[in-house]
Here is the input.
Amino acid sequence: MRYPVQPAETASAADTGGASRPGLPHFALTFAVSLLLWVLLAGSLQPQELLAGAMVALLVTLVAAPRLGIFTGMRFSIAAPVHLVLYLGRFFVALVVANFDVARRVLAPSLPIRPAVVEVHTDLRSALGRMLLANSITLTPGTLTIDVHEDRLLVHWIDCPPGTDLPQATAAIAAGFERHIRGFLK
Here is the structure.
């Protein structure tokens, strides 16, 4: 199924995941991450390095300000870092398991390969959340996100069981990732 593509300049707030204007936490996060990156790359905590890093981080934050709207999908809560770590763990496990599965199929050609394009439903509402889910699916061997349209992802699946419907495909491909992503993204 082919979905119509809406030009970015006419996209509504609903189509962009409801992204609104970024608030102070979004600017502070961008500044802090930029400063942290500066400190890690500089490898020094000397005052002149910290001052230079703060100036560069402020410049980066000001230059990136028009694009920070995508970060309005973030959840700022005490539990968010825990969910992020759980997501990264789930992603790593899925990555290892999928790599072994694809390698097994390559090394044993007698194993079935039933490629199909399936539709997967997501409850994530932010553009950032849907993007992270789509990229997580794509980075896992055996699946490839082809298109994202509102709450549906079109996914090429290397081994789709016969008769798979929308709830089954969603559970098999996206549910594990989405459960953890929902903890730190909207």
